[in-house]
Automatic annotation (TrEMBL):
SUPFAM superfamilies: Alkaline phosphatase-like (SSF53649). The gene is Arsg. InterPro entries: Alkaline_phosphatase_core_sf (IPR017850), Sulfatase (IPR050738), Sulfatase_CS (IPR024607), Sulfatase_N (IPR000917). This is Arylsulfatase G. Its cofactor is Ca(2+). It comes from Melanocharis versteri (Fan-tailed berrypecker). Belongs to the sulfatase family. GO terms for cellular component: lysosome.
Amino acid sequence: SPRAVLVLALALVGLWAPCVVSRQPNFIVILADDVGWGDLGANWAETKETPHLDQLAAEGTRFVDFHSAASTCSPSRASLLTGRLGVRNGVTHNFAISSLGGLPLNETTLAEVLREAGYSTGAIGKWHLGHHGRHHPNSRGFDYYFGIPYSHDMGCTDTPGYDLPPCPPCPRRGTAARVARKDCYTEVALPLFENATIVQQPVELGSLATRYAEEAARFIQRASDSGRPFFLYLALAHMHVPLSPPLPPAPGRGIYGASLSEMDALVGRIRALADSLGKGSTLLWFTGDNGPWAQKCELAGRLGPFVGAWQRQRGGSSAKQTTWEGGHRVPALAYWPGRVPAGRTSHALLSILDIFPTLVALAGAALPPSRRFDGLDVSPVLFGWSDVGHKVLLHPNSGAAGKVGEIEALRLAQYKAFYTTGGAMACDGSTGLAERHQPPLIFNLDRDIQEQEPLDVTSREYQAVLPAISRAYAQALQDIAADNVSVADYSQDPAAIPCCNAQHVGCRCHGATLDPHVEKRTPRLCL
């Protein structure tokens, strides 16, 4: 009857109500660096240093099958901000301090879409998507930027922190002896930017977490005062080396544990800022760019159960830079009181790629045209209405084996297929040789989360799943080939290196104030 139809319609509207937002929500995306899946106590009982993150998990939703879009810095960040894999957006490996290019300019960032939709946009922390000219964050949709343009081990500092091998401090005089160390940047000091201005060079690493929290608070306050919704992209230095915990670590915690506690406290401060705006007004999403950097030994994070045992038996690491689970399965939490269910654990197959289309949808904006996206709008999973994510998820080569950026591993339901395997450098210095697999290695992750024993190619299970994997792989490659694909410029020029004062050794800013907000600061434009 018409009455029954009306009642049913009203009931459906009531079910849909959590997604209908009376005003555009604020978004805070916190991206940790080189963090392990097991670095959250909510994920791994052995971890005791993350009470604030564990509280977020208890009051929000924890995603346990969540993946970065690559296993190294620049490609993962490019995918977060475009919703597209590196084979589409052009960013397949890391940019250098002297890079002229960056994320291709014809790629549309999440910040550009949200700013067009009325958002105030800010990026705080590590960028690593090009810093020269129009590749700077201020030219990629961010109204405000404060941070380091690449990884904080890509420049010397006066207090180098903890790294393996340890790096020397910046030279202080033009006549100082330059000490060459492998994997250490000794010629140019690490710069700290506010928008296009270097405000400190070298960076004081010990106070960086505090500075990031202060700048986040200022950005949020300015956005709140303006009456506009905001998007804050907070890309932490934690847990990438060098580690610079604020205090000597307590016995038994170690340098990594102390740094993890510092990161956890920083996330707690940001959560408090979000809550101060009124609970329910801000979605906070925490995740990581890739897995731990195993060659850093005790300064690397915890993999949890994702140890890539098959690879480790053959040498090398199965974490960062690899396509093993430890390289790309990362912790992920969503917190949005009243909208994201509290205390929920989702097993949906999700990716950092999904952040772009999901936030665009929640903001009421439209995806950029004339391109295809690897990410999904996972609002139904976010709101607890569904626990279904990707049917197929692609894992690009990220430095350990195969041509960087190419797709030679993929996930189909509980099955993980490898057409190429290889191990990155491990703590003991070993690496795993690249191996091609035709037919592919296939693991059933439901039974073998450690990736220890691939299915026997003669087994009924292998023979049953292989055709579906082959079809999914072929369809994915065809889709990429038919797409509007970008190409990044990886050329380099020493003139592109950020330098506050080329007359001073290491580009040191002599006399530059440590506080970019005092009135007498001397601007140093560097682009």
